[in-house]
Each structure stands twice: as structure tokens, then as C-alpha cells.
């Protein structure tokens, strides 16, 4: 085997090892983020459950505005720490809440969170839009 062949084999072996190390690091970062999000969701759930209960449920309508950006990526929706559904591009998700103080979070892939007050028998309308480079907004309408 000549020197170039040995160098190529060494590069492949070292490259594979580096890729393995990077994959492990990325997995650890993802797990830590998910653990942190899980803790945040639990705290959100606890806050909502400690707030006043409404005499009647409040309806919540969440609309994801149609956009070319992240069009094929569904958005996970969490209300008061509970996963309640998925929003597709241009879709609407209708929910209800029994709590006065609420928090809605949408993951796509960046988390967007909004806090709002539930009104007995009322309707709260929210809009979610995506933008390039992880931007976007979640607004009360």
C-alpha cells in the first residue's frame, strides 16, 4: 500500500470517528433541549391549573397563515403544557380551554409562545406565520 492510500484510509477512519463524536454531541444537545422543553411545559401546565377556572369553556382558534417557508413542516401545538394537535400550512386548529390564564406554544422548528386570557363562552383567535431563517410570529387577533 502506498502513502496516499494509507493517508486516504486514515482520513476515512478519523473522519468516521469525528462524525460519530459530532452525532453524539448533537444527540445530547437535542435531549437536553427536549428535557428543558418538557420542564417548561410542566411549569406551564401547573400555572394554568392554578389559575381560575372559567364558568364556561373559552374557544380558541389558531390559524397558520399559508406560506412557502416551511410549508411541508407541520407545527406542533401545545396549550397549557399539553400537546393538543398539529397545524399544517394554511390550516386552522379549534380548541377550548377551561382556564382563565393560558399559554399556547407552537413548535416549527423555533418555539413561539403567547399568553392570553380566556373569556367564559368567548372566542380567542390567534394567527401563526412563518418566515425565513426560523423567524415568524404568533399574534392575538
Could you please describe the fold and organization of this structure?
By secondary structure, the chain is of the alpha+beta class. The protein has one domain (1-141). Helices cover 34% and strands 43% of the residues. It contains one helix and eight strands; from the N terminus they run H-E-E-E-E-E-E-E-E. The chain has one helix spanning 3-50, and strands at 53-64, 75-79, 82-87, 92-99, 101-108, 110-117, 123-130, 136-140. Strands 4-1-7-8 form a four-stranded mixed beta sheet, with no helix packed on it. A hairpin with a 2-residue loop joins strand 2 and strand 3.
- Helical region count? 1
Q: Order of strands side by side in the largest beta sheet?
A: 4-1-7-8
Which radius of gyration do the C-alpha atoms yield? 22 Å
Q: How much is the average pLDDT?
A: 78
Using DSSP, what is the number of strands? 8
What overall form do the CA principal axes indicate? globular
- Poorly predicted tracts of residues: 7-14
Spell out the helices and strands N to C: HEEEEEEEE
Tally of domains = 1
Task: State the secondary-structure class.
Answer: alpha+beta
Q: What proportion of the residues form beta strands (DSSP E)?
A: 35-45%
Q: Considering DSSP H and I runs of 4 or more, what fraction of the residues is helical?
A: 25-40%
How far apart are the first and last residues' alpha carbons, in Å?
70 Å
Tell me about the largest β-sheet. 4 strands, mixed
In short:
The protein is α+β, with helices and mostly antiparallel strands and 141 residues long.
Amino acid at each position: 500500500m502506498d502513502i496516499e492510500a494509507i493517508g486516504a484510509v486514515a482520513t476515512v477512519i478519523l473522519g468516521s470517528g469525528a462524525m460519530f463524536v459530532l452525532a453524539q454531541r448533537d444527540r445530547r444537545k437535542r435531549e437536553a433541549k427536549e428535557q428543558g422543553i418538557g420542564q417548561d411545559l410542566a411549569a406551564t401546565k401547573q400555572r394554568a391549573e392554578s389559575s381560575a377556572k372559567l364558568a364556561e369553556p373559552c374557544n380558541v382558534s389558531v390559524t397558520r397563515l399559508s406560506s412557502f417557508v416551511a410549508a411541508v413542516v407541520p407545527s406542533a401545538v401545545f396549550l397549557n403544557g399539553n400537546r393538543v394537535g398539529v397545524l399544517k400550512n394554511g390550516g386552522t386548529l379549534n380548541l377550548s380551554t377551561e382556564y382563565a390564564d393560558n399559554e399556547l406554544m407552537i413548535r416549527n422548528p423555533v418555539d413561539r409562545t403567547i399568553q392570553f386570557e380566556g373569556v367564559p363562552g368567548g372566542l380567542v383567535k390567534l394567527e401563526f406565520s412563518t418566515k425565513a431563517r426560523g423567524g415568524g410570529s404568533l399574534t392575538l387577533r
